[in-house]
Amino acid sequence: MENLGQQLEEASLSLAQGADQFIHRVGGQIHRKQFDIAGIQFLTIPLERAEEVLELLAVSYLPENPIDASVRVQRSDGFDAYISRLIEKSACVMAVDSEDKIVGVRLAEIIDVDDALLKLTTSVQDALAYVLSPFHSDREVIHWAIIRALQYNLYDIAAEQASKRVLTHGILCVAAGSRHMGLGTELITQSEALAVAQGCDLTVVMGTTLNSQAIFRRSYTALRSVDYLDLKDSNGGYLIPYPGKDTSCVLFMKVLLPQQSNFEKEDIEKDRPETSLSEPGKIGPTDELLTPRDENKSM
Fold first, then answer.
1. Which H or E run contains 58?
2. Contact at 8 Å (CB) between 81 and 133?
3. Which of 74, 100, 101, 144 could form a disulfide with 129 if both were Cys (CB 3.0 to 4.6 A apart)?
4. Is beta strand 202-207 parallel, antiparallel or unpaired with respect to 165-174?
5. How far apart (Å, rounded) are the C-alpha atoms in residues 184 and 104?
6. Cβ neighbours for 139, distance < 8 A, ≥ 6 positions apart
7. With a threshold of 0.70, does the pTM exceed it?
8. CB 164 within 8 A of CB 120
9. What are phi and psi of 249, to 5 degrees?
């Protein structure tokens, strides 16, 4: 199989040779037409492909994400169960190449703000996080330290935006050989459209790497940030001592427009088969999908 980057480059040249064809670029990103020519499809992730997703994350996410890499997180029963739970909730998207190999994923979760039990559970977890920190794993300690430093409360942000359903959490991962071709940006766009079809009007995410932050900055509002070297334990030691090029975590939000999704409600069912998100009639062009309701709105 040809390298995916080579395929996309050839697709770009093919489009450029057509006098009546137009390559639309936003911030250097490749238009979906080139993905189509290269045989790239964007699909919802069925639960039976969870193992493939986990294998991708083990190679292209866990060793590179500064939080996971700092404590050498590897696959475990708990991690595998968490990823499978996200996939089962039907808000996750994958990019597959012409041979049906997964080359990128966007995993996320939809939160119902009015779910009283979930809100109570989250509040209790927040309250106990500091008290029980000595009993947490190193990764959990870092996670809660970042949450506190960012003053991140999903329910407060949702209340300020009058939102009822929020797309949040999750993971953005693109295979090493398929990067810098716009797959990450497209996965985010497809994930947003899928969430809008399920009633979401807001997305809140933490960008933990420079690459993901660059994608989110194009259309998201940056709320707050924290430098990794400012995160220290009770003894003054660094929680993330060697962050590398990824020096900070940034909290982002984006208001989503419901009318800009062409998905039908009946298409979003847990047990349905794989569904292409780039089929005609399913989703509009990338640059016409989702924009903030008010890009100048301040928090």
1. helix 50-60
2. no
3. 144
4. parallel
5. 7
6. 67, 68, 71, 73
7. yes
8. no
9. -115, 135
Contacts for 23 with CB less than 8 Å, ≥ 6 apart? 12, 15, 16, 31, 33, 34
Q: Are 262 and 281 in contact (CB under 8 A)?
A: yes
The encoded tokens of residue 173 equal 């991962």
CA angle at 6 for the pair 37 and 30, rounded to the nearest 5° = 55
Residue 48: which residues within 8 A CB-CB, separation 6 or more? Answer: none
- Output the DSSP codes for 139-169: HHHHHHHHHHHHT--HHHHHHHTT-SEEEEE
> Which pLDDT band, with edges at 50, 70 and 90, does 126 fall under?
low
What does the DSSP assignment read for 170-224?
Answer: EEEEE-GGG-SSSHHHHHHHHHHHHHHHTT--EEEEEE-SHHHHHHHTTTSEEEE
Q: Given the structure tokens 């939102």, which residue do they identify? A: 163
Location of structure tokens 């395929």:
7
List all residues 6 or more positions away from 76 whose beta carbon is below 8 Å from its beta carbon.
none
Q: Can you name the residues that pair with 93 across neighbouring β-strands? A: 44, 106
Contact 274, 52 (CB under 8 A): no
Which candidate, 211, 210, 212, 7, places its Cα nearest to that of 108?
212
140 residue type, one letter? E
For residues 41-66, average pLDDT: 94
